[in-house]
C-alpha cells in the first residue's frame, strides 16, 4: 500500500498545478517564466510561451545548461532540469506581456535533486528539522536594508580603479544648488518629507510586493544618508522566506530603475556611514505551539530558545562565511555603525549579534533576531545554515549563559577594555570567515543538508573572490604610499 502522506503530497501538487493552469487561462497569461538561483544567490530565468506549458511541464521540467551557472556543473556534464514549484506562482509586474513566474527546483537528468541547488538545500533543512522531532516548522523573517542611488559608476582596469555614487538627498550635496533638506550622516532614521525623498517609491514597492503575494508590515527610511531604506515583509517558512527575499530584491531593483534610480544591497557602499544589514528573525513551532516562549524566563525565552541561541553564537564565525559572504561584508562589521560584531545575546540591544525583541511580543511572536547577516548572502544557504547551527545548540544543550555569550544588557561599544576581553567577535575578513568554515562545518552536514562538495565548492569560489580583491591596487593606497 502507498504511504498516505506521499499520496497526499501528490494530490496537493496536482491541485496546485491545476490552479496554475487555470490561472494561465483566466488571466490570459502569454508567457511563463521559470526561475532558478545559482550557488552565489543570483537569479536566472528562461521564458516559455504559455501555450507550451501543461501538466507534463511540472513533471518533466525544462532543460538548461548547468555549466553556465556559477558553482554548478562542468561542461562535459552540463545537462540539467529545472522543475517548477506550482505554489510559487506570481504575475511579473515588470514584463509588458502577461507573464507568470515560477520558482524551480533543480534536478539531474536522472531525476535526482541536485545537491548544489540552494533551494534543494533549504528544503532538506526543513525536512531534517521534522526528522529531529524538535519542531515541525522554522520561521524566518529577514529585514534586508538597501540604498537607492541616483547615479553609480565604477571600474577596474590596468589604467585605474574607481567608484562614484550620488544621491539627491546625500549629506555631501549641501554645497550644490538645490532645495536643502539633505539627510545628515547617521541622521536618516524615520525623517518625514521633504527630507525623506523616497516614500512614494517605497510605497510602490510595497504595493507590488502585496500584488505578488508578499505581505508587507511596514517601510521607512533607514539611518544612513543617500537613500537608505528598509521594507519589512511577513515572516514565512524557511524555503518560502528565501523565495520571498529574492522576489523582494527583484521588485526593489526594478521599481528603482523605473524611477531613474539604482538599488544596491551591498553591505557597505558608503564610507563613514551605516551599512545595510539583514537582521534575521527566527523561531521554531511544533504545529501551532511556539517553542521559543516561556513566561518568566530571560526576555520570556524558553530554555530551548536559549540552546538555539547558543548554537548560533558558537558557530557564528563559520556561519559568517555564508551569512556575510562578501569582502564588502566585513567593511560593515566594524564597531561604531550599529554593526553587530559582538558574539553575545541581549534583550532589545542592537549592539549584540543576537537581539531578543521584547516590545509588543506575544507568545507566538517570541523569537530571536540574528543581526550579523547581510543581503549579499544566498538566503537558501544562509537560512539553512542558521537553522542547523541552532539545532546543533539544542541537541548539544549549548546554554549561551554558560559559554560566555551573555546576556549583556548595555551598550557593548562603551564597555571597558577589560570587559571587552571576555567577548568574542565575528571574523575580521572574508578569509577569516572561510578559515572558520573549513574548521567548523560538521554541524552543516547533519541530515545531509549540506554536503562536503557544496562546502568545498563554496569556499573555493569565495577564496577566489577574496584573492581578486586582495590583488587589486586600491585608490587609498595611492593616498597612503605614493610619496614614500
TrEMBL record:
InterPro entries cross-referenced by the UniProt entry: Gln_synt_N (IPR008147), Gln_synt_N_sf (IPR036651), Gln_synth/guanido_kin_cat_dom (IPR014746), Gln_synth_cat_dom (IPR008146), Gln_synth_gly_rich_site (IPR027303), Gln_synth_I (IPR004809), Gln_synth_N_conserv_site (IPR027302)
Swiss-Prot/TrEMBL keywords: ATP-binding, Cytoplasm, Ligase, Magnesium, Metal-binding, Nucleotide-binding, Phosphoprotein
Record domain GS beta-grasp: where: 27-111
EC number in record: 6.3.1.2
Gene3D superfamilies listed in its UniProt record: Glutamine synthetase, N-terminal domain (3.10.20.70), Glutamine synthetase/guanido kinase, catalytic domain (3.30.590.10)
SMART domains: Gln-synt_C (SM01230)
Residues involved in Mg(2+) binding: 143, 145, 222, 230, 279, 369
The species this protein was found in: Calditerricola satsumensis
Name by which UniProt lists this protein: Glutamine synthetase
Binding-site list for ATP: 217, 233-235, 281-283, 350, 364
Entry's localization field: Cytoplasm
Positions contributing to L-glutamate binding: 274-275, 332, 338, 350, 371
Amino acid at each position: 500500500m502507498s504511504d498516505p502522506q506521499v499520496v497526499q503530497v501528490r494530490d496537493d501538487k496536482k491541485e496546485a498545478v491545476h490552479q496554475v493552469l487555470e490561472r494561465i487561462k483566466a488571466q490570459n497569461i502569454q508567457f511563463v517564466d521559470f526561475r532558478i538561483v545559482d550557488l552565489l544567490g543570483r537569479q536566472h530565468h528562461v521564458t516559455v510561451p504559455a501555450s507550451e506549458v501543461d501538466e507534463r511541464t511540472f513533471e518533466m521540467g525544462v532543460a538548461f545548461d548547468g555549466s553556465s551557472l556559477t558553482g554548478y556543473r562542468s561542461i562535459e556534464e552540463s545537462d540539467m532540469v529545472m522543475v517548477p514549484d506550482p505554489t510559487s506562482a506570481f504575475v511579473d509586474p515588470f514584463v509588458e506581456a502577461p507573464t507568470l513566474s515560477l520558482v524551480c527546483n533543480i534536478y539531474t537528468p536522472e531525476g535526482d535533486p541536485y545537491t548544489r541547488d540552494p533551494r534543494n538545500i533549504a528544503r532538506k533543512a526543513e525536512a531534517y528539522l521534522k526528522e529531529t522531532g524538535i519542531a515541525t516548522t522554522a520561521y524566518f523573517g529577514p529585514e534586508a536594508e538597501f540604498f537607492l542611488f541616483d547615479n553609480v559608476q565604477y571600474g577596474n582596469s590596468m589604467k585605474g580603479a574607481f567608484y562614484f555614487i550620488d544621491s539627491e538627498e546625500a549629506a555631501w550635496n549641501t554645497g550644490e544648488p538645490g532645495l536643502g533638506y539633505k539627510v545628515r550622516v547617521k541622521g536618516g532614521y524615520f525623517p518625514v518629507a521633504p527630507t525623506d525623498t523616497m516614500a512614494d517609491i517605497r510605497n510602490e514597492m510595497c504595493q507590488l510586493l502585496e500584488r505578488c503575494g508578499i505581505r508587507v508590515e511596514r517601510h521607512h527610511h533607514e539611518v544612513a544618508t543617500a537613500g537608505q531604506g528598509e521594507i519589512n515583509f511577513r515572516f514565512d517558512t524557511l524555503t518560502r522566506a528565501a523565495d520571498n527575499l529574492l522576489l523582494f530584491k527583484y521588485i526593489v531593483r526594478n521599481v528603482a530603475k523605473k524611477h531613474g534610480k539604482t538599488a544596491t544591497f551591498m553591505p557597505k557602499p558608503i564610507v563613514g556611514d551605516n551599512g545595510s544589514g539583514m537582521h534575521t528573525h527566527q523561531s521554531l513551532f511544533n504545529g501551532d505551539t511556539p517553542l521559543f516562549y516561556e513566561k518568566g524566563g530571560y526576555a520570556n525565552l524558553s530554555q530551548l530558545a536559549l540552546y538555539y541561541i547558543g548554537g548560533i553564537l558558537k558557530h557564528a564565525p563559520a556561519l559568517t562565511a555564508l551569512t556575510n559572504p562578501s569582502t564588502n561584508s566585513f567593511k560593515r562589521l566594524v564597531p561604531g555603525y550599529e554593526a553587530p560584531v559582538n558574539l553575545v545575546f541581549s534583550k532589545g540591544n542592537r549592539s549584540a549579534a543576537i537581539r531578543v525583541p521584547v516590545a509588543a511580543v506575544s507568545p507566538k511572536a517570541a523569537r530571536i533576531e540574528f543581526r550579523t547577516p547581510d543581503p549579499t548572502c544566498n538566503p537558501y544557504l544562509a537560512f539553512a545554515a542558521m537553522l542547523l547551527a541552532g539545532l546543533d545548540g539544542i541537541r548539544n544543550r549549548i546554554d549561551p549563559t554558560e559559554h560566555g555569550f551573555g546576556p549583556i544588557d548595555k551598550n557593548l561599544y562603551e564597555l571597558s577594555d577589560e570587559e571587552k576581553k571576555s567577548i568574542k567577535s565575528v571574523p575580521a575578513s572574508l578569509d577569516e570567515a572561510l578559515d572558520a568554515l573549513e574548521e567548523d562545518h560538521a554541524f552543516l552536514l547533519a541530515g545531509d543538508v549540506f554536503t562536503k562538495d557544496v562546502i568545498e565548492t563554496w569556499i573555493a569560489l569565495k577564496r577566489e573572490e577574496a584573492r581578486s580583491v586582495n590583488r587589486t591596487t586600491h585608490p587609498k593606497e595611492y593616498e597612503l604610499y605614493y610619496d614614500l
